[in-house]
Amino acid sequence: MRKVIKLDGELCSHCAGKIQNRIEKIDGVSKASVNAMTLKFTLDADDAKFQEILGQSVKIFNDIEPDCEVLV
């Protein structure tokens, strides 16, 4: 499943890269893209585990950049 999710708040390109790298290491993730300019997060992941992966991704965002909210 592929989903594009809007982000709100502040996000620098350095943090976006760190977030993207950590999310791509989650089991079941095919590809992740975090764009600091457009404030969009694209997640390609296993359908059966998508909600679980999305929850883990939100936690990663909160850990690295608490000023950026994932608008799920």
From TrEMBL:
<dbReference type="GO" id="GO:0046872">
    <property type="term" value="F:metal ion binding"/>
</dbReference>
<dbReference type="InterPro" id="IPR006121">
    <property type="entry name" value="HMA_dom"/>
</dbReference>
<protein>
    <submittedName>
        <fullName>Copper chaperone CopZ</fullName>
    </submittedName>
</protein>
<dbReference type="InterPro" id="IPR036163">
    <property type="entry name" value="HMA_dom_sf"/>
</dbReference>
<dbReference type="Pfam" id="PF00403">
    <property type="entry name" value="HMA"/>
</dbReference>
<feature type="domain" description="HMA">
    <location>
        <begin position="1"/>
        <end position="69"/>
    </location>
</feature>
